[in-house]
What does this fold into?
Amino acid sequence: MATYGLPALAALLVWWLSTGVILMLQRLPERTYGWSFLGTSLLAAMALCVLIVTAAQTTTACAYWAFLSGVVLWGWHELAFLQGRITGPHKGACPLEASGPQRFVLAVRTLLYHELAILATLGLLAAVTWNQPNQFGLWVFLVLFVLRLSAKLNIFLGVPHLSEELLPQRLAFLKSYFGRRPMNSLFPVSITLSTLLAAYVFHAAFSGDADAFAVTGYTLVGAMVVLGTLEHWLLVLPLQDSALWRWALGRDETIHKDKTKTAASPISAVPSEGRFP
It folds into this structure.
């Protein structure tokens, strides 16, 4: 049981801690942003080096290190977005008169540089792990990208529960692109596909041919898929999840968030962009 339980627990802790740290850093005064961005940039550089070193190694420790490195690189992108460093060419609210296609184009332009930077990083990770046995850093980064993109599209199309107050003031204009609907047609597809993906990854982990390295790596990635699926459900279920990150949000913001969700008005970035970096 520990063979699967320990990696799953590790993924849960990494998800919880990394999300909280990013939320906490973006709440600090702007005078701290330079230092926090410098620190996370150094961590991201170290994470890339770790991925290069561990790509050819198939120990359980290297599976953990690769997974953690992929999450660190993802977190760097999330913080860069929340601090307004890498966003998009359009930095304004959506006009009230904008049609559906116009609203979509404008929404894409608000995130364009952020998404392109993620794609560039994804290409870099694929290059440094090409034909190597340890690609779990690449896989977790890809999973986070796909699930976050799905969450963004669902938020754009409309969901009942949004954690809008998690966005910093400099990105408050993004709220004008959020849709509010009881349900949208993409949501069932997103849930179905993410659930099937989790089943596929865990099937690889439970395979009789899987060694300790494969079991650890696939369980880590599979757990992250499950957590990403949970984040999708939190967009439609009236659950107050702020208690998980009260230590990062602060008491006042937690109370405000609870009221907002109860009223059915992140992380979606946004996280959030909201929730697992």
